[in-house]
Amino acid sequence: MVKQLLATTDDLVGILIFGGGISGVVRALREIPEKRRKKIVLICRDSGPETLQDLSAGIVTATLIHPLAPMSDLLVETMIDVIKQDANEFTIQRTIPFEIITPESL
Predict the structure, then answer these.
(1) Which of 53, 70, 62 is nearest to 15 (CA)?
(2) Structure pTM?
(3) Mean pLDDT along residues 33-39
């Protein structure tokens, strides 16, 4: 889809990937001239080795990730809170902070 988008759109300035497929998006961006690629901001939610390498290469602009340990801790804490209280009386809403990783922070 990104390859087709790049072929049919001259004014694309950003791509936000919240699902899978970051490797395909990066592959499509590698196929266009570097001058055009540098004008496109790519933000994703992946923190795997390939994404970190693409951050270093300047293809991925930033990645937004929820650190696994704090997210897991908050999940367990929330489950305990639900068990301790009558869950029908209130709604539990938690905020999980995310980290922003950029090439400069590697």
Answers:
(1) 62
(2) 0.80
(3) 95
